[in-house]
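In this supplementary section we document a worked example of the pipeline. Step one takes a protein sequence of length 281 as its only input; no multiple sequence alignment statistics are reported here. Step two produces a three-dimensional model, which step three serialises into C-alpha cells for compact storage. The input and output of this example are shown verbatim.
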Amino acid sequence: MKKVDSDFKIKKIKSLLLGVCMSYASTGWSQIDLQHHFKDCHVQGSITILDYKRNKWTYSDSANAQVRTLPASTFKIINSCIVLELGVIKDENEFIKWDGKDRSPVGMQIDAWNRDNNLKEAYRNSTVWFYVELAKRIGKKRYLDYLTKCHYGNLDISEKGDDFWNYGHFGVSPIDQIQFLKAFYEEKLPFSKKTYAIVKRVMISDKTSHQKNQYTMRYKTGWTDQDGIDIGWCVGYVERKDNIYFFATRLTKKNDVPNSNFMNCRKEITKTILRQMKVIE
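The serialised model returned by step three reads:
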C-alpha cells in the first residue's frame, strides 16, 4: 500500500498540530482514549465522529482521517442513491436474476449471494454481483457526473473493471465519508425525496424504542484489499431525538497477517466507542 502510506506520512506531519487542537480542544470527548480499541483488535486504523448539533469533530487520528483509500462496500450507500435516481431499478424490492455462478469470497460460502437479489437484500448482504450488474447498466460517465456533484472522493474511477470501488485508484477518506453522509441526511444532494426515503430505510441496522434511549442507527460495512493491505470500513450515523452523530471507522492490516476477528472488529470497535461516548447503549 505504498501510495496510502506515503499520503499518510505527509498528512501526518501537516495536520499533527491542527488535529491535536481539534480533537483535544473542540470536543467534550477529547480525553477519552479511542486508539486502544484498535490495538486490542490487533489492527491499525481510526474513527472519526461528527457531533451534528455542536458541529464538533472527534478524531482518534486526525491524519488518518484525511487519507483516501478504496471505499469497498460502503460505496453501496451512494451507489444505491444513484441507481434509484436513474431508474435503473424502481425500488428496493425489485429483483435481479442470479446468473447461476457460485460466488464464495476468500473461501466463505455466502448463500445470500447465490440467488436472486433485490436492493434491500444486496445492501444488507453486500452482494457484490448485484451492484456490479447495476454498474454495467449505469456506466462510468454517469457515475462520474454524480460523484462530482456529490463531492465524493477523488473521482478517479479509471479502473478497467466495473467495481471501481473495490479495485483501482478510487479513494475516499473518513472525512469524505462523513461529509457525504451529512449532506445525505440533510437531503442536499441531487437525489429525489423518494430516493432518500428508500435508501434511509434500507440503511437501518439498529432501532430502539426505549423512551430514555431512543435512537436509529444506519450504517454500511466494507472490506477490500489494496496493495497488500486489508481495508475494513464501518460508516453511518446514529439519529437520536436530540442530535445526530456521524461516524467513519476504518481498519487496516497486512493481508498476509492472519486475524480472524478483522471482519467483526469493524462493527465492534465502532459500537464500543459509540457506547463509550454515550451515543448508543
